[in-house]
Amino acid sequence: MVAGLVVVTGGKGGPGATTLAVGLAAAWAGAGRGVLLVDLDPAGGDVAAHLPVGQIRGRGVAAVLAAASERVEPRGVLAEAVEVAPGLRVLVGLPRADAAGLLRPEVGVAVAQAARQADGVDGVDVVIVDAGRLLPGSVARAVLALPDAVGVLAARADVPGALATQRALLVAAEATGAELVVVAVGVRRRTSADVAELAAALEHPVSGVVPAWRRQLDRAIRTGQPPTTGRLGRAYQTLATALWPPDDAERSARAAGGRHARGDGQDAAERAEREGASP
């Protein structure tokens, strides 16, 4: 996968795409990459609920659009992005779903293009867009059509999820040139065989799996901290590495620092998960 502009989307509503976008952003930032996470979901800004930013009044996509007289500028996007962790900045989405009329497809494309132009500027290595549902005429469909865009499609490994993902793949096929990666989300340990059935039903490979560690995900949302430790955190790290393998310099740096990176807090979190978390 060639990183640069990563469009995370899904075939149906509900949890999946946003948590996947946040998990990938946190994993890549934790690996030392500069990440700009942009919430362009027209249904409302759910990314903020997963991160320690809250709904910051007057900041985010709405402020970028209000300040843009003729076109959205990269400096405007960066100015409104909030740094929530080392290497991770977030442009929060619309504060309420009834403002979704502001995010027409052409507007979403303008914001995504401006964010993409910030790639390589001020420490930004990759832009992740949480684009909402992938439907005909949607923001996700329009942003996927941008040059060098890579789509990451969150798919539930059940019958409704497979049907929704099939429809989304048909819509994505219209975005010529867009690479598309399917990731199975919310997979429980006892139903992992469903992932193979999902791939067969879609006639499309499933490139990664995110388990349904509900308790850890609920804790992450409640505390406003993305899941970076425990089994769920490791699942996102594995997926992030598979989608964007580190180069030799990054491997050397990680090996040198890895012996000291594991702290008592992470050990305690993983012990608590082993003792009390349920799959």
The fourth-level CATH homologous superfamily is P-loop containing nucleotide triphosphate hydrolases
Q: What is the total tally of β strands?
A: 8
Number of helices: 12
| CATH architecture group name | 3-Layer(aba) Sandwich
Task: Give the CA-based shape.
Answer: globular
Q: Order of strands across the biggest sheet?
A: 3-4-2-5-1-6-7-8
In whole angstroms, the N-to-C terminal distance is 29 Å
Overview of the molecule:
- The protein is an alpha/beta fold and about 280 residues long.
- It has one domain (about 5-275): 3-Layer(aba) Sandwich (Rossmann fold), CATH 3.40.50.
- The protein is about 45% helix and about 20% strand.
- The protein contains 12 helices and 8 strands.
- An 8-stranded mixed β-sheet has the order 3-4-2-5-1-6-7-8, with helices on both faces.
- Helix 4 (about 75-80) crosses helix 5 (about 105-115).
- The chain is globular and about 50 Å long.
- The two termini are about 30 Å apart.
- The relative contact order is 0.17.
- Mean pLDDT is about 80; it is low at about 250-279.
Structure characteristics:
single chain; 279 residues; Rossmann fold; 8-stranded mixed sheet; 12 helices; 8 strands; disordered C terminus
How would you summarize this macromolecular structure in one to three sentences?
By secondary structure, this protein is α/β, with parallel strands linked by helices.
What's the arrangement of secondary structure elements?
Blueprint: E1 5-10, H1 17-30, E2 35-39, H2 47-50, H3 61-67, H4 74-80, E3 82-85, E4 88-91, H5 105-117, E5 126-133, H6 139-144, E6 149-156, H7 159-173, E7 179-187, H8 193-202, E8 206-211, H9 214-223, H10 230-243, H11 248-261, H12 264-276
Parallel strand pairs: 1-5, 1-6, 2-4, 2-5, 6-7, 7-8
Antiparallel strand pairs: 3-4
